[in-house]
Design brief:
By secondary structure, the protein is mainly alpha-helical. It contains 15 helices and no strands. It has one domain (4-316): Orthogonal Bundle (Triphosphoribosyl-dephospho-CoA protein). The termini are close together.
């Protein structure tokens, strides 16, 4: 079993980092998971091919962004640029917004590290997270404005009347004066994420420097990795573990907390039966999939899928898989 403190950041170029990011996304959405679109599951005209096409456009946009030497490299603008490329090709609502949001601070931390020699201490696991925290903490008010523009452009699901209650936040992204309020109150990108961190797991990664993902990798992914024979089994296992640990944020926003907690309990029951390693585990996964697919997308555990992708991305950056 790998010791977390011995892990070394592997990429040697930003092209390598972007390719790994694209591969992590592909591994996530090309695996059939309960309630998610995949190779054998479509929803409202959206297919696996839709995700593949969008992911390819995001990859090309990200490569162009870092190859442009005149760019000052702002994380907020990077997020907006990726979202813009996604929405230009997608005939549907946004498909990979969560991937973009979660990857971005890790990509910018990677930018600081790629030129360092393999023996450099900055390439170690804990140093990478120091760099990520610095990226998040140093993001500006301007980055926060780019973020609001990106999320509005994406038409993200569940923003209107989330969880059955109107937003009470001062920074409601549907507010036409949101940008003026952010400037007037000097709110940074991290401030905006921190405000929604209690009910949104993606936002919480920004507030807590990816503690949820780091602890999952250290305490569960690495110890359990060898118990799953194939890539797809590993990915489904990560997905179900995340769903068992936290109620899915997208399900909560589109429905209510009670519904999200009910689905979390179903995932916890699967954990007790060792997922696909037992007959009962297989039956429970099939039942969960049928239940999640019964509401025409309202029970899509999209945040769980996004977090699955970023866990894969982190694991591949450090050669854990």
């Amino acid at each position: 079993m790998k010791d977390i403190n011995d892990l070394i950041f592997q990429p040697r170029s930003m092209t390598n980092v972007i390719n790994i990011m694209d591969e992590a996304s592909f591994l996530e959405f090309s695996t059939d998971k309960p309630g998610n679109i995949g190779p054998s599951q479509k929803l409202k005209g959206i297919s696996f091919e839709s995700f593949k096409n969008v992911s390819n456009e995001i990859k090309k946009a990200n490569l162009r962004y870092f190859k442009n030497k005149s760019n000052k490299k702002s994380i907020g603008e990077f997020i907006y640029n990726a979202v813009k490329s996604m929405m230009e090709i997608s005939p549907h609502e946004n498909l990979l917004l969560g991937h973009i949001l979660l990857y971005s601070p890790l990509v910018f931390a990677s930018k600081r590290i790629v030129d360092c020699p393999l023996e450099s201490k900055i390439r170690k696991w804990d140093k990478f997270w120091d760099e990520t925290e610095e990226i998040i903490n140093s993001a500006s008010v301007s980055d926060g404005i780019w973020l609001t523009r990106a999320i509005k452009l994406s038409k993200a699901g569940g923003l209107k009347n989330p969880g059955g209650k109107p937003l009470k936040s001062l920074y409601n992204l549907l507010d036409p004066e949101i940008e003026q309020k952010i400037r007037r109150r000097n709110k940074t990108l991290k401030d905006l994420f921190s405000e929604s961190a209690e009910f949104d797991l993606i936002a919480r990664q920004y507030r807590d420097n990816f503690n949820f993902c780091r602890n999952l990798i250290k305490n569960w992914v690495i110890p359990e990795l060898d118990n799953f024979e194939s890539k797809s089994e590993r990915i489904i296992a990560i997905f179900l573990k995340i769903l068992s640990l936290e109620p899915d944020s997208l399900i909560y926003r589109k429905n209510n907390l009670t519904t999200a907690l009910k689905i979390q309990k179903k995932a916890q029951k699967i954990q007790k039966h060792k997922m696909k390693q037992t007959r009962i585990g297989n039956i429970l996964i099939s039942k969960l999939n049928n239940y999640l697919n019964s509401k025409n997308g309202k029970l899509n555990p999209g945040t769980t899928a996004d977090l699955t992708a970023v866990v894969i991305f982190i694991c591949k950056l450090f050669d854990i898989f």
